[in-house]
Structures are given as structure tokens and as C-alpha cells.
């Protein structure tokens, strides 16, 4: 089951065809991409239908006032030229009155344009804000393997930069699209009413401009997509350099990072220049087509005026409409680079949103309330996605074991034996490919994800903070916890006095994700977080491995007290912890080698490995 939200499928590769066919369909592909952006954002626009329809109504009014604006000029020119003034009965006569009417139409059009931009830009901002929130949640729902295979800078570019570019582009596209569509249709209708031949000529050049925009737009899109890829690589270099600043300076190799940045920066610049050249070429082509259309209207219209077929005022009206119709096209062409970047960003976001989360709630899943904490692995086998593609061995292979409620189990084994993967499956950060992990005899998949994880307290080797305050960092697992509860957990970890010495106490921000804290302080905050969660299950992945002896001993004492009577899986190699556990699980090559009391490890369970002949990595 996918995360609720828009169901968008990533477009697959298109089959190559003849060059002429590719050129002919370039415009269609370009407008198809525009449609894909609409499909991507449609679910987030539904709650704002009032804004959308208000924007459409104001756009229609804007078109009406712009259509009406040149008519007083036509009547004045016809009167001066002696062609006779055919003014409707409801329009006041006189030069002053017609001049005032022209000004009134112009002011009304300006007011409508202001309202249109206000409404449609507001709509775009709200839609993109909702989409960005959904995208961030979707990225967080992806499996750890997804994040481990990607640079942090690349994902930051997606969530922050790409959505910002999409917002700016959508606002521009939204406003210009309504202007072009309404004006093009309305102006052609009026022109056909006045003179069918001139209207057909103007329409033909308008269609030619649209063809240029579609064809060149496809090339700009491809170039912008490559340029966005280069910028993503550039962002990854920056993020990696800043993250490893201590190592770069310590080894005196910051210059090599500068060279990598310069290389990526030059490649991004070259792609940017190509996008700009294509945009300038498109603007020239559209401008040439529209100027040719106006010239043709002047020539044909002049002949029509000389023959008495058309009044001079009507010709002025034609030229005014042609110029007015040209303006949105020129703006569209001038924004072609921004539009190409918008579509390139949207293409990347569509593909990202099409990814399914690793784990999700199944239909009929129930809340995991009041579980006793018995944990079992029934023939569990697991292989990482990259390992499955490359044919590597299983990380866990046919693991079968029963852990009683309230039992403390130490997990040992060499590096790569599958210890951390065992904890990952117990926390349901991933689902096994074979077998089942069960809590109280029930498959974890039948519990809702959030309710089950609320039953689990967890500590890793290194704790990561979100740049929040001390209070928010401790309350990460229970945001609704009171300050007294938070202080009680901090006191148990020996943190209360240290926090009291901070400038703002519990409201002191942990800048740079807690990087300025010592290892002991970081792990104590993580321990307070786990204590506040107070789960029935405790999953501990060598939480004291990076601490000095005194800090590790203090942390271990608190953990042994906290996990008394709680089902615990504790990855460790500390003899003191091993002796304090009820049983010790030895993993070897992804399989259960021994499982028994400390110092008396019994034989592996009788169940044979599911994937005989394939050991874990």
C-alpha cells in the first residue's frame, strides 16, 4: 500500500523514431510534460477550488476589459477619418467621454490583473506548500537503503530547491496560461467578427508561435534536466565538504575538495549557458513570427481600408489586438528557460513521488496497544535491494528464534553477521523477504506502523539531533510529554544539573544537530529520549561503543536498570552486559550459530536455514 497522496507514475523511456517524427512530436511531448505537472499537483489544488475558480473568473473579466479597451480608440479614429461613428446606444458620445471610457477600461483591466496575480499566485503558493510537506514526508518514508545510496545534498536539492523552482515556475505558468488561452480565443473571435481574412492570418502566425514554443520547449526541457543533474552533483559536493570539514582540514586536503567543486561548477555553468542560448533562440523565433503576423495584417488591412472593405478605426483595432495578443506570447517565450527548469524539476519530483515506501500500513492493520513484548523471528531471511540485484548473499538467512516477554537478550557476532539488520527488522524499518517477525505471536505487518513503533525504545551507536532545543530533542519520541516528565528522565541520566547550567536550560537549541556536544552528553540525551518513550521493547545497538570507560559504565548501569522487565535486544560485546542478559544470541554469516544462557550457549534452533547454500554477508 502506498503512502496516501497523488498516484503519479514515472514516465518510461520513449522508443526512438525517425528524426522528422521526433521534431513533429516535440511540441506534444512538451505539452504532455505540462499536463504531467498538472496531474502531480491536482490533488493539492482540490481544497482550494474557490481560489481557482475566482482566478478563472477574474481572468475572464480581465480579458473582457482588454477586449473593450481599444474600441473607444476605433470610434475616435473612425470619426476623425470621416468613416462615421457607429457607437452603441449605451456608450456616451463625445471625445472627452470616449477618452474617459478608454481610461476606465484600462484601470479596470489593471485592477483585474492585480487580482488575478494575487489569486493565482496565492493558489500556487498554497498548492506547492502542501506538496512540499507531502514530499518531505514521502522522502522520510523511504527505506534506509534509499538514503544510504544517495547524497544528502541531492535530497536537499529535491525537497528545498526543486520545490522552490517548481513554485516560481507554476505561478508564472498558471498566470500566463490563463492570459494566453483567454486572450487568444477571445481576440480571434472578435477578429473573425470584424474580418475573417485578417483573423485567419493572425491565427496562423499565433499557431506558428505555439509550434516554436512547443518544439524549442522540448529541447530546453532536456537541457534543463541535464543542468539540474549537474546542480544536484554540485550540491552533493558542497554538502559532503561541509559534513567532512574536520577531516579535510585535519589532513590538509581542502584543496582537493576545491578542485572537485570547481569541476562540478564549470560543468553546471556550461549546461546553464546552453539553456540560456536555447531560450534566447526561442524568444527570437516567437518575436519574428509575431512581427511577421503584424506586418501581414498591416499590408492586408491597408488594402482593405483602401478598397473600403474595412474602416481605418477597425484596422487600428486589429493592430491593437495583434500587439495585445503578442505580449503574452513574448512573455511565455521569455520565461521559456524558467519553464524548462520547472518541468525538469517536476520530472525529478514525479519520479521521486512514484517510489513506494519500504514499509506501510496494510489494509486492516490494528493498533499495537497493550502488547506484552514477546518477540519472535520465524524463518526470517533478508537481503538489501542492492544485494538482490548483484546476486550477493543474504544478510539474514533463515533466522528462527523466540524471545520471551521481559527477556533481555544480548546479540553478538562479527561485523557483517546481521546484528544491526536484526534490530532493523524488529523495529520494522524494513520487512523480511522471507518469513515473519512477530510481536505477541502476531506478524508486525498486521500492526499499524506508528502504533507499533510507539511501543519501542531505541538507541543507536551515534545519536542524531534535529537542531531543536534540549527539551524537543528528549521529547522526540513523545512530543506530548510534559516538562516534568522530561526533567524526570533527564535526572535519571544525570543530565538535569548540566542542563540547568545552560543559558536557556531546556529551551537551549542544540546547534548543528548537537555536534558541539561531547559523546557522553549526546548519548545521555538519547538515553533520556528512550526512557521517556518507555517502550515495552528495547532495541540497543552498541550505544556505549564510542564512549570512554567511565561514561560507558554509567550509561550501561542506567540501561540495565531501565530494561529490567522489558523485552530487550542488545547488540554488544561488553562482557559485563553479556553476563547481565538472560540469554545471548550469536549470529554468524546471517544465521543463528548459538542461542542460550551466558557462558552456556546452546545449539542453534532446529529449524534449518530457508536459503541453504547461501550464507549472509
Write the layout of secondary structure elements.
Layout: H1 19-24, H2 26-45, H3 49-68, H4 71-81, H5 95-140, H6 144-148, H7 152-194, H8 196-243, H9 245-250, H10 254-306, H11 312-334, H12 336-353, E1 375-382, H13 385-390, E2 396-403, E3 408-412, H14 419-426, E4 434-439, E5 442-443, H15 449-453, E6 456-459, H16 470-474, H17 483-492, H18 496-500, H19 511-514, H20 519-533, E7 537-541, H21 549-562, E8 567-571, H22 575-580, E9 583-588, E10 591-596
Parallel strand pairs: 3-8, 3-9, 6-7, 7-8
Antiparallel strand pairs: 1-2, 1-4, 4-5, 9-10
Task: Please provide a brief summary of the model.
The chain is of the alpha/beta class and 617 residues long. It has helices at residues 19-24, 26-45, 49-68, 71-81, 95-140, 144-148, 152-194, 196-243, 245-250, 254-306, 312-334, 336-353, 385-390, 419-426, 449-453, 470-474, 483-492, 496-500, 511-514, 519-533, 549-562, 575-580; strands at 375-382, 396-403, 408-412, 434-439, 442-443, 456-459, 537-541, 567-571, 583-588, 591-596. The chain folds into three domains: 36-353, ABC transporter transmembrane region fold (Up-down Bundle), CATH 1.20.1560.10; 360-455 and 535-617, Rossmann fold, CATH 3.40.50; 466-524, no CATH class.
Task: Explain what this protein looks like in three dimensions.
With 617 residues, this protein is of the alpha/beta class. It is 61% helix and 9% strand. The chain is built from 22 helices and 10 strands. The strands form 2 sheets. It has a 6-stranded mixed beta sheet, sandwiched between helices. Strands 2-1-4-5 form a 4-stranded antiparallel beta sheet, with helices on one face. Helix 21 (549-562) links the parallel strand 7 and strand 8. The longest helix is centred in the middle third of the chain and has 53 residues, at 254-306.
Amino acid at each position: 500500500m502506498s503512502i496516501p497522496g497523488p498516484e503519479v507514475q514515472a514516465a518510461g523511456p520513449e522508443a526512438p523514431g525517425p528524426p522528422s517524427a521526433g521534431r513533429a512530436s516535440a511540441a506534444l511531448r512538451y505539452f504532455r510534460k505540462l499536463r504531467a505537472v498538472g496531474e502531480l499537483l491536482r490533488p493539492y489544488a482540490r481544497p482550494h477550488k474557490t481560489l481557482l475558480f475566482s482566478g478563472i473568473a477574474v481572468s475572464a473579466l480581465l480579458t473582457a476589459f482588454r477586449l473593450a479597451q481599444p474600441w473607444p480608440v476605433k470610434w475616435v479614429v473612425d470619426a476623425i477619418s470621416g468613416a462615421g461613428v457607429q457607437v452603441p446606444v449605451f456608450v456616451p458620445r463625445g471625445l472627452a467621454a470616449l477618452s474617459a471610457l478608454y481610461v476606465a477600461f484600462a484601470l479596470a483591466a489593471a485592477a483585474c490583473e492585480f487580482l488575478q496575480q494575487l489569486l493565482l499566485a496565492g493558489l500556487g503558493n498554497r498548492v506547492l506548500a502542501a506538496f512540499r510537506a507531502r514530499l518531505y514526508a514521502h522522502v522520510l518514508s523511504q527505506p534506509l537503503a534509499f538514503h544510504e545510496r544517495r547524497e544528502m545534498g541531492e535530497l536537499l536539492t529535491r525537497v528545498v530547491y526543486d520545490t522552490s523552482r517548481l513554485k516560481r515556475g507554476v505561478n508564472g505558468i498558471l498566470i500566463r496560461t490563463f492570459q494566453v488561452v483567454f486572450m487568444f480565443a477571445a481576440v480571434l473571435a472578435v477578429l473573425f467578427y470584424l474580418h475573417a481574412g485578417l483573423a485567419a492570418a493572425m491565427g496562423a502566425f499565433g499557431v506558428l508561435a505555439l509550434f516554436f514554443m512547443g518544439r524549442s520547449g522540448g529541447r530546453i526541457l532536456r537541457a534543463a534536466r541535464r543542468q539540474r543533474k549537474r546542480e544536484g552533483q554540485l550540491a552533493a559536493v558542497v554538502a559532503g565538504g561541509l559534513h567532512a570539514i574536520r577531516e579535510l582540514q585535519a589532513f590538509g586536503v581542502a584543496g582537493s575538495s576545491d578542485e572537485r567543486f570547481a569541476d562540478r561548477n564549470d560543468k553546471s555553468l556550461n549546461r546553464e549557458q546552453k539553456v540560456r542560448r536555447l531560450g534566447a533562440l526561442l524568444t527570437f523565433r516567437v518575436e519574428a513570427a509575431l512581427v511577421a503576423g503584424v506586418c501581414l495584417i498591416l499590408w492586408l488591412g491597408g488594402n482593405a481600408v483602401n478598397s473600403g472593405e474595412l474602416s481605418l478605426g477597425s484596422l487600428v483595432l486589429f493592430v491593437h489586438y495583434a500587439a495585445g495578443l503578442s505580449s503574452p506570447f513574448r512573455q511565455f517565450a521569455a520565461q521559456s528557460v524558467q519553464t524548462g527548469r520547472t518541468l525538469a524539476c517536476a520530472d525529478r519530483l514525479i519520479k521521486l513521488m512514484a517510489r513506494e515506501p519500504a514499509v506501510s500500513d496494510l489494509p486492516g492493520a490494528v493498533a499495537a496497544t497493550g502488547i506484552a513484548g514477546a518477540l519472535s523471528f520465524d524463518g526470517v531471511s533478508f537481503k538489501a535491494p542492492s544485494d538482490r540485484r548483484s546476486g550477493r548473499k543474504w544478510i539474514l538467512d533463515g533466522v528462527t528464534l523466540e524471545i520471551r516477554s521481559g527477556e533481555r537478550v544480548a546479540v553478538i557476532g562479527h561485523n557483517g553477521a546481521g546484528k544491526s539488520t536484526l534490530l532493523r527488522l524488529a523495529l520494522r524499518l524494513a520487512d523480511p523477504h522471507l518469513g515473519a517477525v512477530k510481536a505477541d505471536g502476531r506478524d508486525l505487518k498486521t500492526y499499524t506502523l506508528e502504533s507499533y513503533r510507539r511501543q519501542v525504545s531505541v538507541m543507536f551507536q551515534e545519536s542524531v539531533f534535529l537542531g531543536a532545543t534540549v527539551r524537543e530533542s528528549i521529547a522526540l519520541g513523545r512530543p506530548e510529554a510534559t516538562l516534568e516528565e522530561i526533567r524526570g528522565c533527564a535526572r535519571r541520566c544525570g543530565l538535569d544539573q548540566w542542563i540547568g547550567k545552560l543559558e536557556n536550560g531546556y529551551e537551549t537549541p542544540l546547534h548543528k544537530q548537537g555536534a558541539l556536544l561531547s559523546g557522553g552528553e549526546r548519548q545521555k540525551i538519547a538515553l533520556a529520549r528512550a526512557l521517556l518513550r518507555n517502550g515495552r521493547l528495547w532495541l540497543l545497538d552498541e550505544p556505549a561503543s564510542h564512549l570512554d570507560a567511565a561514561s560507558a559504565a554509567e550509561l550501561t548501569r542506567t540501561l540495565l536498570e531501565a530494561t529490567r522487565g522489558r523485552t530487550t535486544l542488545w547488540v554488544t560485546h561488553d562482557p559485563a552486559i553479556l553476563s547481565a542478559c538472560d540469554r545471548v544470541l550469536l549470529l554468524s554469516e546471517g544465521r543463528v550459530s548459538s542461542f542460550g544462557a551466558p557462558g552456556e550457549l546452546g545449539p542453534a534452533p532446529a529449524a534449518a536455514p530457508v536459503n541453504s547454500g547461501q550464507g549472509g554477508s
